[in-house]
Amino acid sequence: MTVTNQAGTISSTVATLSVPGSPRRPQAGDLRFKDVGAFPFSLTGTEYTSILGGMKMTIPNRVGTPLLIGSAGPVGVAGGPNNCSWSFGLFQLPTGAVGRTTIYQTGILSDFSLDLISLTTPNTLITSLDLFVGQNAYALQAIQTAGTDAYTFGTGTLSSGDLQAEATRQGAASRLMTAVSLSGGQATFISYGWQGDTTTVYEAKISPATVSTVSAEATNLAQQGYILTAVGGNCTDGFLLIGTRVQGDTTPRPFQVTARMIPDRGYTMVGSIFVYNATPSAGSYLYLYEQ
């Protein structure tokens, strides 16, 4: 491209436009991809807060970030689930955007399966999960749409080594994993199908990571065209990153890893991790953003 004005003429460097052979996801309205691609402009009204064990927060007309997971340090000390807390951020929906309700819920781990029943409605989708065995507590984030969406819920617990085969099986059935937790080598996942997408074959890739390799593994998934649809784990057991893409779509996706809470224009937070260093106040934050 050449631009000319009163100051003279200048030409840009050569650029190549690649068009994938298959349609890219997410398609409009598919909340299984955490709003990636939904808002090409910046969200406003940042609110950063936390939820204690045994509580539930329901926030209307907001975009909520994934739970801040990581070490046991920031989630509390010995004593029980009421000492636990998980952090998250909220952004106002753009003017004219379809509304939704963001739900953050915690409870006693032994009640987890029963509590899920209230969140298995067709218009509710769980997008972040943390099972904290050491504190006998769990936390989750969910999105409840204002429309007539129909998401079909699924869950399971298996060894982390078997998760790849299960994610591949789900992708072949047009389903994908939206949340995962890791503890003691066991992975608990949440998955969904969607009424607007019953024939697409998805490729899923499970990338184990440590505190020091999370950034590199997440970036590598994005470079291969994967959208990070689930992040779970802790600093002791390690982390699991789940990337999902339309079969054959290897076009790289823009990706950022930063310690900054507020996303750049067009980016969506797909994961957040807290690295505990001796005391909560000495910890560091890692936010993963994708387009």
What does this entry look like structurally?
Strand 15 (227-234) and strand 16 (238-246) form a beta hairpin. With 291 residues, the protein is mostly beta strands. 39% of the residues are buried. It contains three helices and 19 strands. A four-stranded antiparallel beta sheet has the order 4-8-10-9, with no helix packed on it. A four-stranded mixed beta sheet has the order 6-18-19-17, with helices on one face.
Can I get a quick summary?
By secondary structure, the chain is mainly beta. It is built from 3 helices and 19 strands.
Radius of gyration: 19 Å
| Low-pLDDT runs | 72-82
- End-to-end separation in angstroms reads 25 Å
User: Strand sequence of the main sheet, in spatial order?
Assistant: 4-8-10-9
Question: From the helix content, strand content and strand pairing, which structural class follows?
Answer: mainly beta
The count of β-strands is: 19
Helix content: under 10%
**What form results from the Cα inertia axes?**
globular
Please give the largest β-sheet: 4 strands, antiparallel
Please trace the helix and strand order, writing H or E for each element.
EEEEEEEEHEEEHEEEHEEEEE
Mean pLDDT: 87
The number of helices is: 3
Strand content: over 45%
